[in-house]
Write a structure and sequence with these properties.
single chain, about 425 residues, six-stranded parallel sheet, alpha/beta, 3 domains, 14 strands, globular, H-NS DNA Binding Protein, three-stranded antiparallel sheet, 14 helices, Double Stranded RNA Binding Domain
């Protein structure tokens, strides 16, 4: 640690862990490394690189930061169990300076609805976790999740016990709230915010407090588990208090088994434990490459894992576009089917992008509406993410290419393949239900 002094504040940065678990903010390995190097240059003291147990991709990203970033203490998160702590130990093994960050909730609402533990059991589990972590780490942090809603005497007891067990840093998260009376009709806050955004031309940031899209959205599996048991575990107000319709549980790489099983049941799939675990592994792999997964994406995974339906009906071989003086654009697209045959088509539309979509739709026989797309990237490579609506399902696709239009076309073909697999899975489900 930096030399202690009365005016020295230790900066613990969790952009790559707590920040990244915000819906839509997940990063792949290269993105995490770029941010980690920026934080290194910034001079942060402790860099929390991620949650290795969350997904294979997050484990690899934490390990890469541990290998390649020198200077800050590299930290990783673990729940208060041996499996998570061992995962942190392996991921951080290459780091010169490292810390294991163990957390366990302490508040009454978390003990009752999320953990199902008594105060005695919480203390025992926290102490055992710290002792286990100290076998591999000299630097161990303990966080009492939801500390501000914990009984003060019990919080003091937990803190004393984990320090005795070897915790070198204790975090007391303040997630409580204060209520003051005003004459504001808070149910109108979202409507007022949208009105200002429309009039000013400044969009409301997704992570804006209270009125942003993420204000009542949750991707972290631990949060989702708590929300499914009792919304008050992670929301200090109800969505309708400020004008939102409802909370949103986003399926992404940080999500856990509880949400996936719930989502599958909503879609009509009842899987035994073995098949569910296979689906869970495949969902995690897919989520490592996407910001979030939609129902159509999940159904495509079910198709591939449970019914042997391979995603990959079509492959993009080429695309070219041209814009004419008359305002119409043309696109020529070449796809290769699973049978190896190449199929070409050309289409006209009001824009080159629309013409590309129309050509792909005509070749594949799948009509879908692109709801949104985003383009980013570095070093000459465009990274494209698209969101597509097909009937009552939403799908997402990603691709990289030097040319933006080629990247968008690749992402759209990926979605078309997923729609095809999802459709076959749903037909098999309907046939199975008809037989029973």
């Amino acid at each position: 640690m930096p030399e202690a002094s009365t005016d020295r504040v230790i900066v613990f940065d969790t952009s790559l862990r707590d920040g990244e678990q915000a819906p839509g903010a997940s990063m792949d390995l290269e993105q995490k490394l770029r941010v980690a190097r920026a934080l290194q240059a910034l001079g942060v003291d402790v860099l929390e690189a991620g949650f290795p147990a969350a997904s294979p991709g997050d484990y690899e990203a934490v390990a890469a930061v541990a290998r390649q970033v020198e200077g800050p203490i590299v930290c990783a998160l673990a729940r208060a169990n041996r499996e998570d702590i061992d995962r942190v130990t392996e991921a951080l093994r290459p780091a010169g300076r490292k810390r294991c960050h163990v957390f366990l909730a302490t508040s009454p609402i978390h003990r009752e609805f999320k953990l199902g533990l008594s105060t005695t059991e919480v203390v025992r589990r926290a102490v055992e976790a710290i002792r286990h972590a100290r076998q591999s780490f000299d630097d161990v942090e303990y966080s009492a999740e939801d500390a501000a809603r914990t009984e003060p005497d019990f919080l003091c007891e937990v803190v004393e016990k984990v320090i005795e067990a070897g915790a070198t840093t204790v975090n007391i998260p303040d997630t409580d709230h204060f209520q003051l009376r005003t004459g504001i009709r808070t149910q109108e806050l979202c409507a007022a915010s949208r009105a200002v955004a429309k009039a000013s031309g400044f969009a409301v940031a997704r992570n804006k407090a209270v009125v942003g899209q993420n204000a009542f959205a949750h991707e972290a599996g631990i949060h989702q588990h708590g929300m499914m048991a009792n919304a008050l575990t992670y929301e200090i107000m109800r969505p309708d208090d400020v004008g939102f319709e409802s909370s949103q549980l986003v399926l992404g790489k940080h999500s856990g088994r509880h949400l996936l099983r719930h989502r599958l049941e909503q879609l009509g799939y009842r899987l035994d434990d073995v098949r569910f675990e296979r689906a869970f592994v495949e969902v995690k792999k897919l989520a490592d490459h996407k910001k979030e997964l939609h129902d159509g994406d999940v159904e495509a995974v079910v198709a591939g894992v449970l019914h042997g339906v391979a995603v990959g009906q079509w492959e993009l071989l080429g695309v070219s576009t041209a814009s004419g003086a008359g305002g119409l654009a043309t696109a020529a697209v070449t796809l290769r089917g699973r049978d190896g045959k190449e199929v070409r088509d050309a289409a006209c539309a009001q824009s080159p992008l629309e013409a590309v979509f129309r050509s792909i739709e005509r070749i594949t026989g799948t009509a879908a509406r692109v709801r949104d797309y985003q383009v980013g990237g570095v070093d000459g490579e465009s990274e494209v993410r698209i969101e597509v609506q097909h009937r009552d399902r939403t799908y997402s696709g990603t691709a990289q290419a030097a040319d933006v239009l080629v990247g968008i076309a690749r992402a759209f073909v990926e979605v078309v393949n997923r729609i095809d697999a999802s459709g076959r899975s749903r037909r098999e489900l309907a046939e199975s239900e008809a037989r029973t």
